[in-house]
Amino acid sequence: MPDRIAVGLVSRTYFNMPLWVAQERGYFADEDLTVEGTIAGNASQAAPLIDGTYQAYIGSTEPVIENVADGGPLRIVAGNAGKLVHSLIARAPFKRVEDLRGRTIGIFTEKEGTFFHAKAMLAAHGLNYPGDYQVKHTGGVPPRHKALLAGEIDAGMQSVPWNYVAEDEGMNNLGDAIDYVPDWQFVSVNVNGEWAAANRATVVRFLRAMLRGTAWLYENRAGASVIAARALPAPLKHAERAWDFFTGTNAMTRDMSVNPKGLANVIATLKQAELLRPDAPDDPAAYLDDSYLREATGA
């Protein structure tokens, strides 16, 4: 009977493509695995990894870093998006970042990347939080898109290809986060280190299938775009543009490695925001166990 792995996914974004490809192409089945991905939305990443609800989570690095600093068992075992792929999207009336003074910005939470990146972009244009604008929790990218359409928020960070969808619907792209924050490990593959140590072969097989999914993604623009268009869902033309962006920039890290400089920037930002103890390790290696990935690649 195949081993089962339950995987938490933040939202329906392109970051999930290696998993969706591996499911559709049978790569997990080849490794004698049954893998189920669940959209978790705003739910905590740490708690379901610790209690065994999920065995892996394709999500942000911040909860893992905070858990490790507090002596917890979570670990990053592979990379996913080692660069930022977000644009600051605003409703039609707002054509410049400066126009957002006094307006509402949609975020996931105050403890993760999109909030930090929106803050950095707005601050570069003279708007500082909390005095110059408000924030509202919207969940991930797709529900944030709906909130923009409904006028519940005035702007928010949107990843590729949702930024393209927003532009088609008359919204304004006010700039790309990578121009303000060049290095940031935005998404990683995260696990409970205790579970992983007890199930090493399963983790290695999972990552091996994910590597195959990533490799196929890079080599098959048309096929990958069909999968993305259906899974997100998004228009095929935007799925194709997303493939061009993610593969052309290596934003979807081809070898699933972690960007050490990007992870170090996350750690430093969490400390500056007083979300991480001052004495927490600065070395990215403290939060990462890449031995599973090395074994999966045969390195």
Structure description:
With 299 residues, this protein is α/β, with parallel strands linked by helices. It contains 13 helices and ten strands. The strands form two sheets. It has a five-stranded mixed beta sheet, with helices on both faces. A five-stranded mixed beta sheet has the order 7-6-8-5-9, sandwiched between helices. The longest helix is centred in the C-terminal third of the chain and has 20 residues. The relative contact order is 0.20.
Please render the helix and strand layout as text.
Layout: E1 3-9, H1 17-25, H2 27-30, E2 33-39, H3 46-50, E3 56-59, H4 62-69, E4 74-81, E5 86-90, E6 104-107, H5 113-123, E7 134-137, H6 141-150, E8 155-159, H7 162-168, E9 172-176, E10 187-192, H8 193-198, H9 200-219, H10 221-231, H11 236-249, H12 260-272, H13 291-297
Parallel strand pairs: 1-2, 1-3, 6-7, 6-8
Antiparallel strand pairs: 3-10, 4-10, 5-8, 5-9
Helix pairs in contact: 1-9, 1-10, 9-13, 10-11
Shape: globular
The largest sheet, given as strand count, sense and whether it forms a barrel, is: 5 strands, mixed
Assess the beta-strand content as a share of residues. 15-25%
- The CATH topology annotation of the largest domain reads as D-Maltodextrin-Binding Protein, domain 2
CATH architecture title of the largest domain: 3-Layer(aba) Sandwich
Low-confidence stretches: none
Distance between the termini: 29 Å
Summed over residues and divided by their number, the pLDDT gives a mean of 94
Provide the domain count: 2
Number of helices: 13
Tell me the radius of gyration: 19 Å
CATH superfamily annotation of the largest domain: Periplasmic binding protein-like II
User: Helix proportion of residues, in percent?
Assistant: 40-55%
N to C succession of SSEs: EHHEHEHEEEHEHEHEEHHHHHH
The total count of strands amounts to: 10
- The CATH C-level name of the largest domain is Alpha Beta
Strand adjacency order, main sheet: 2-1-3-10-4
Briefly note the structural class of the backbone. Answer: alpha/beta
